[in-house]
Amino acid sequence: MLQATPLTEGWILRHDGEAFPASVPGCVHTDLLAAGVIPDPFLGRNETEVAWVGRRDWTYETDLRTGSGHEQTDLVFEGLDTVAEVLLDGRVLGRTRNMHRSYRFDVTGLSGRLVVRFRSAYAEAEAVRSALGERPAAYDEPFQYVRKMACSFGWDWGPTLVTAGMWRPVRLEQWSTARIARVRPLVTVEQGVGVVELAVEVERTRAEAPLTVEATVAGGRVRAAVDGTQGVVRLEVPSPRLWWPRGYGEQPMYDVELTLLHGDSVLDVWRRRVGFRSVGLDRSADEHGTGFTFVVNGERLFARGVNWIPDDVFPSRITRERYRERLTQAADAGVDLVRIWGGGIYESTDFYDVCDELGLLVWQDFPFACAAYPEEQPLRGEVEAEARENVVRLMPHPSLVLWNGNNENLWGFRDWGWEERLAGASWGEAYYLGLLPRVVAELDPTRPYTAGSPWSGSWDHHPNDPAHGTRHSWEVWNREDYAAYRREVPRFMAEFGWQAPPAHATLRRALPGEELAADSPGMLHHQKADDGNGKLRRGLERHFVYPEGDFDRWHYLTQVNQARAVATGIEHWRANWPVCAGTVVWQLNDCWPVTSWAAIDGDGREKPLYHELRRLYADRLLTVQGRVLAVVNQGAQAWAGVARLRRMTVEGAVIGEAGVEFGAAARAVARLDVPEELMPAGPEEFLVADAEGVRAWHFPAPDRDIPYPRPEFDVTVTPDGSVTVGARSLLRDLLLQADRLHPDARADRGLVTLLPGERVTIGVSGWKTPDADAARAALYCLEPSR
């Protein structure tokens, strides 16, 4: 039986003649941080103090003993970041140049000093650039010349911390006769029967040994002979329980086990969990253009999505528990699709396991983003090798529903001046339209592939044409107000978003000792977007009186504006289902404490946007679009009733009221005309619509023009920490910033608007000393313009 032994102990990192203890998995930065050699790069402006780390070469060492009674011993690295030479007792075992692959070296009969020497990723990238020629990119760093997590080199939300190290586990595998080298599972549903077809590849030490494989699932058992190094086993499960996305059904999983046998002797075992479901992507043409609609088990979905970036700029620190926490936050917000963005990584198996369990659909980008990528060697062979390995590695997961060739590179070629600058040089097109779809079709024909995001489906249309395929909307935020979202109905909005700073407690931890201001040195360092603060200011000034010199007010209003921007888009696009078939907010998470587009900040704290997503992505949503009340029903049952519409003044008077009957079929939208006499006539009026606990607001003027009354409210606190606010005036966008009560405190809701006489109870956890005065001080809402 194959024996696997983790190699986690006894490693050292050599630095300037000294040896420091090293963690495996880990990286140079985390080891130097643990040894006290470098300061925490997440704090203050320390990022610049550790820039030298990425420019150095590094060496890891340990002693290796390989003796055993087995015929072969392999040294297995699940991930080397990135350019490395591996030596054992002075003998070169191999060289690597790809973070996204695993590596295996035969070390049978060898022992001695194991040394892994890492070359600076900068040095490798610059050498490749020198050999292959300059290629344009959205950033100056040379990330497109090395197969490494691109955002290690910095992004408009991330620090420049260019890592090196053994970022995934290392182990010894000792075996005899044969081992399972690869299993490619095709899981399908054919006429109500679940089918698992396992294509097996084995590696042998004895070519003549007769081998069989035995597979089991759901009580079924099948054996097949191995022909040389290949074998295929097919199992059938009659009437399997189907795996569904969250909100559409349950997520039953089936244990699959495949055993490699020599006679009655067990040589190796492969185990995975699979789910039975069918997945398709409807890209058919219609009167609106070219669609992009996910279809799971025959059910057409409006995808309620978020974009995912690596949850830490040092990925080796991300544990299974952290994946579960972050992805559970997504599911609790109503999310049913997570897009793994192309400037990051193929995530660990833990990520996809949690998505399988939670019913979160996964859209997986291949790791290409915002740059022209050379197609020549040494990169081309690495791209194909990593694609083949990761496609097969991730195939068992029912949550994985789409392979996507790249992020924004097809768009960049057309619109960002690349074509002229390239002057005919390769830039990645052959990857996205040739190599990658061929690999997916060969290895994983059960899932759709799209060449990029955004992508209209062919060069016959502009890559970012809203009428065809996927759309990214970045004119909004960069140049336009979020009201511009309402000007178009894309077929699928794959990226859009608005910035806001992280929670107050996150800023206090990240910027110790600094007097916080929008433009303080630390705040500016933790703002990576081009003219980010200028865009925040212009975005605020379109809606609010800018709070000069008042950081707390600036912090609150930028949070409100972020939630408003995303709400404007999602409400409009959900109201136009099925023409628009999904929204994927940029972005769910952060990789460090930073002002960004994230709904959850770098310390894991939820911004108001997070709580707003819970409303926006609920099965039932009301939204006023112009003179129409859209009743959005994504539930499995029809929604019918009477909507109560009230035209009110900001002082609380009702000046018009009506009940309007509605009926929205399952997974459908009903559109109701708002009676003319109920439409607000000016900035001192607004419309509120209620139906079975769901509410929509319509204020016809920018907040700076609305004569809000001075907020009046009562606050009571229970011993368990719950805070109840009773409104004596209109309270618009009331927010309890729980982290101001205690860094560990969390509130169970975000922005809420109350009419006079209404009350809301906010559950607060992690608050050790509940106090009404402290709660009042942590409450913010819109006030009369000053």
Short description, anyone?
The chain has 16 helices and 45 strands. By secondary structure, the chain is of the alpha+beta class. Strand 13 and strand 14 (220-225) form a beta hairpin.
Provide the descriptors you would attach to this structure in a database record.
single chain; 786 residues; alpha+beta; 6-stranded antiparallel β-sheet; 16 helices; 20% helix
Outline the structure in words.
The protein is α+β, with helices and mostly antiparallel strands. Helices cover 20% and strands 32% of the residues. It has 16 helices and 45 strands. Strands 3-2-4-9-6-7 form a six-stranded antiparallel beta sheet. Strands 27-26-25-24-23-30 form a six-stranded parallel beta sheet. Strands 1-10-5-8 form a four-stranded antiparallel beta sheet, with no helix packed on it. Strand 23, helix 4 and strand 24 form a beta-alpha-beta unit. Helix 6 packs parallel to helix 9. It is globular, with a radius of gyration of 28 Å. The N and C termini lie far apart (76 Å). The mean pLDDT is 97.
